[in-house]
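Same chain as my last thread, 153 residues:
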Amino acid sequence: MIDAPVGKLLVGAPMPNYEPRRYQPDASFDWPAALGPDGKAVDASCIPAFGETKSQEMAYLAELTGDWYAITNQKRGLGFGLHFERSMFRYIWYWQQLGNIGQGYPWWSRLHTVALEPWTAIRRKVWAGRREWDRRSASAGTADSYPHVRRCL
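reply #2:
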C-alpha cells in the first residue's frame, strides 16, 4: 500500500508500446481514487500482487501537502518510508511495471515493480494537461543546493 499526503494522481498520456495501462491515460484523479481504462474504479494506493494484473503506468502524485511517502506490505509487516525536501520536489513520479509486462531492455519480461521518486518537474509530453514545464532547479555549490534525499525514516 502507498501512503502519502497527496491531492491528485496525474496519469501520463498514451505512449507507443505502453499497453495495457492500469489507469485511464491522460487523466487527473483525486488520490487515491482512479479509473481504469475500462471505466471501473481502481484504488491507486493499492499495489496488486504478482499475477493479479499485467499492466504498466506512468503517473505523478501532485498537490502534496507533506514531504514524505511510504510503501508497506501489511501482510509481511514490512515497509519503507522516505522524507524529501518538498520546496524542491513538488511531485512524486509514480511508475509501475506489473506482472512481467515490460518487454525488451532492461526488463526482458522479468519485472513486477512499483517505483516512487521525488520529482521536480512534470512534462507536457507525459501529462498533456500541463501547459508548461513546472520545475524547480538548484545550482551545485550554492545555498539552494542540497542532497536529493535528506533522510530515510
